Amino acid sequence: MKASVIICTFAVLILGIALDVKVCIAGITSKYIRRIEASGDMPLDSPHFYVPPGYNAPQQVHLTQGDHEGQAVIVSWVTPLPAPSIVTYGLSKGHYDHIATGSCTYYEYYNYTSGYIHHVTLEKLKSDTTYYYQLGFEASARNFSFITPPEVGPDSPYTFGVIGDLGQTYDSLSTLQHYLNSPGQTVLYVGDLSYADDYPFDNNIRWDTWGRLVESSAAYQPWIWTAGNHEIEFSPAIGEKSTFKSFLHRYSTPYHASGSTSPLFYSIKRASAYIIVLSSYSAFAKYTPQWVWLQAELAKVDRTVTPWLIVLMHCPLYNSNTYHYMEGETFRVEFESWFVNAKVDIIFAGHVHAYERTHRISNVMYNIINKDCTPVPDDSAPVYITIGDGGNIEGIAGVFTEPQPEYSAYREASFGHAILEIKNRTHAYYYWHRNQDGKPAVGDSYWLLNRFHAA
Ligand SMILES: [Fe+2]
């Protein structure tokens, strides 16, 4: 490329970032192609599925936010045998002067019986404070820590990680290890966790190994859970006629705090962000519980308190990969106008095992009798990011539709994770890392201007 062209392109990009307008450049389809073949899951005896030593030692420790404001944390873990659901905690390591108790559950799935799954909520925590906590007893006790978020407010900076469709392969491990070296403070997880259902009879032992794999992060910072299709586990042929059984037993969400009637859709505030988690695989048509809840929920958001409005779901509404193409279309038709009217800043989804970011576009004019069914630039619309590229056993979704649609800004068939750095009420910096040759490399980056305060 000639120097003059490079300078011109750079100038246009800078101008576009400054104005946050739609820059009329073609979308980018990255030439970097992660190897196409799927990698198998790590073996059951992998050291990355390490079982902690000691009698009935707690394992699969994970955190999530426990209330609406970020002043509570749900601590969850599994013990092979019955044990008290007790967390001791305090403000210095080894000095646990607080105690919280919770509940214990277990479930059976086909010929599998889970361990004892504990959920304990720590409440009324101080903001922006490191807490140390202990699970288990005597020689089997285990110690961890976490940092609470700053108070909810319009100028509280905060850094989120974004991971989806992780699974438990060596590629999954690479994504997780890269994330552990990132500045992420909380993970926005966009669904499809263990991929246990890719095994004959849905081998739930793979839920246990996944829980032990992600403990290195999830025991130390909250992961905000979204349910994906691999969480449904509806298998009537083997007598499993309920849905989301393993996920709902293992992964708590604070859904009561946002007035939701289902743990599969809920909201939280965290620092300067308002995060709405939706369920692509729960009823969402007009008058259903999710539809009614979301309508009320969007009306509750006060952007002067939480400037950043972020929505998580599993199935993307805009995606130009050939895999899962159009699967989110009914959800888009139902809710896109709501997201545009609410000026949602960004929508993260997974499901497609590749990476893609859109321009701000909408397609809300279509009404079945007109012909206005093409996405058009819209400054009120969210940026849609598909990030189902954690690295699971099913491999990469390596075939994009051609030509690249105008709405698609960047797409690449690689595994990776993203970081969203909220700087203040007007600006956030977003960047996506690919797992390139085992090393993290920035593949895409983007300055977001807040839709309420800066658009
Ligand atoms: Fe999926």
TrEMBL record:
**In terms of domain of life, where is this protein from?**
Eukaryota
What protein name does the entry list? Uncharacterized protein
Organism expressing this protein natively: Diphasiastrum complanatum
